[in-house]
Give the backbone structure.
Amino acid sequence: MAAPTTAAPKSSASGAPRKQNDTFNQKDKPTQVRLSNITAAKAVADAIRTSLGPRGMDKMIETGKKEVVISNDGATILKHMSVLHPAARMLVDLSAAQD
C-alpha cells in the first residue's frame, strides 16, 4: 500500500503560496452592502419627504459659502445636499437628470 501524499499549496508565478480570498467567502457581506444601500436611500427620502404634497414645508439650506437657500422643490434640496454614499449619490444624480 502506498503512503498517502499531501498536496503542496499552489504557488503563484513568484513562488509565494496563494491564500484564499476571504472577501468572496464571506456570506454576510452582500447582505451588509444591501442594508447599507437601503439605509442610504431611506435617508435621502426622509430629507425631502416633508417638502412633498399640498402641505409640504419649505426647507432652509445653508450652502458651503454660507448662503441660505429656501425651497420646497425636491431637486433643489437634493442639489444642495452633500451626499457621500454611492447609492444615495446615484439617487441625487437621478433627480437632477429627470429635471
Remarks:
- Strands lie at 59-62, 68-71.
- The CA atoms of residues 11 and 18 lie 5 Å apart.
- The longest strand covers residues 59-62.
- Helices lie at 22-25, 29-49, 74-80, 86-98.
